[in-house]
Amino acid sequence: MENKDVILENTKELVCNNGFDKVTVKMICEKTNISRKTFYSFYQDKYDILEHILIKDIINELNDLIDKFGKMELNRPIILEQMYQNIYANKKFYSKIINTKGENSLESYLLYYFIKCYYKILADVKVDNVVEMDYLTYFYSSSSVMLIKKWILDGYVLTPKQIAEYYQNWAVSALANNYFYCK
User: Fold this and answer.
1) Cα four-point dihedral sign 147, 65, 55, 137
2) Where in this chain does the record put each HTH tetR-type domain (predicted)?
3) CA-CA distances (angstroms) from residue 67 to 39, 71, 72, 79, 120?
């Protein structure tokens, strides 16, 4: 495992044990047995690490699944369930960072990257204009993020499969019916 990945994993462990707000760069360096100079050669600060963890855990996996399975109707539940499974597999970590506020919050990062993913997913949708596409991608991205946030805050009362099925039924089916088939 490369230093960069070790830093990510050790930061996750520190966050699980201490909470994100209490974790410092010094703690990360001590846990990883690296100098601050080495740390800063990879990351700007602990918020940069948080973003890279999200990219690694959720966004890269999501993009890979979209590339692998495409946008076919039958594959959407597989993609959704895997995304929720990745969050659930790291539930202690995500429970600790869910209340991080501001531009470096889980919510902000997910929204930013989900908008990019939805632009990719919706590339073939016949939308009347750019403004409608912007609002459409924001609508689905923000609903995804808010559902994840509620799921985490509620203590993961649903299984990844259940939450994926719900989102599939509520949002994805409506998207498919209204944009892929009706226009």
Assistant:
1) negative
2) 1-61
3) 32, 9, 11, 10, 10
* Cβ atoms of 16 and 92 closer than 8 Å: yes
With a cut of 60, say whether residue 183 has pLDDT above it: no
pTM greater than 0.85 (yes/no): yes
Mean pLDDT for all residues in the chain: 88
What is the Cα–Cα distance from 57 to 130, expressed in whole angstroms? Answer: 30
Q: Per the structure block, which two tokens stand in for 92?
A: 């202690």
Q: What is the mean pLDDT of the segment spanning 147-172?
A: 93
Domain with CATH 1.10.357.10 in the chain: 70-180
For residue 74, the model assigns a pLDDT of 46
Sequence ranges of the chain with CATH classification 1.10.10.60: 3-42
More confident residue, 30 or 132: 30
Give me the architecture of the 3-42 domain, per CATH. Answer: Orthogonal Bundle (1.10)
What's the half-sphere exposure (Cβ side, CA atoms, 13 Å) at 44?
A: 6
- Predicted confidence at residue 67, as pLDDT, reads 80
